[in-house]
Amino acid sequence: MNEQARRTIASYTTYQEAERAVDHLSDQDFPVERVAIIRQDVRLVEQVTGRMKLGGAALHGAASGALPGALIGWIFGLLNWLDPVVAGLLFALYGLVFGALVGALFALLAHAAQRGRRDFASVSFMQPSRYDVVADDAVANEAVRLLAELPGTGTRSGAGKSSRPQSGPAIT
């Protein structure tokens, strides 16, 4: 792929606004293969979802161990030469139960070993502060002109930032 000099043609506070801008360019027969959406100022957010007690740890461990156990049991059951379908299903059931028990046991041991240091559950995700739409320098002016025609570009969005297309420095 040939690296072209690019510049920011618009900045938005939500991905939906950036996507709408690129969709508008596409509707105008603009060469959208020369456009990119870049997430800027990305940060990792860990959202706490609740308290984790022994029962919750055991339940999460059982759920984590059940599927691998069922799959391993099913594979072993398929190796039975006499009746692989029945054996596969039966071993999958045994594997599910065994995997759930082993998963719950390991989760209980891991939770107890932490001694209350991390007794909460959480999920992590990445969150950008803005989305820049960039285009190759050769077509950037045309993209800015087309985005100026986009209905609703003068509205406010997010934390008070304007979603109006803005010219920016060249990005290489």
List strands and helices in order, with pairings.
Elements: E1 6-12, H1 15-27, E2 35-40, E3 43-51, H2 54-78, H3 84-114, E4 120-127, E5 130-136, H4 137-148, E6 156-157, E7 161-162, E8 170-171
Antiparallel strand pairs: 1-5, 1-8, 2-5, 3-4, 6-7
Helix pairs in contact: 2-3
Q: What does this 3D model show about the protein?
A:
The protein is an alpha+beta fold. It contains four helices and eight strands. The two termini are 14 Å apart. Mean pLDDT is 83; it is low at 154-172.
Largest pleated sheet: 4 strands, antiparallel
Poorly predicted segments: 154-172
Q: Provide the helix percentage.
A: 40-55%
Tally of individual helices: 4
Mean pLDDT: 83
Spell out the key features of this protein.
172 residues; alpha+beta; two-stranded antiparallel sheet; 4 helices; 8 strands; disordered C terminus
In short:
With 172 residues, the chain is α+β, with helices and mostly antiparallel strands.
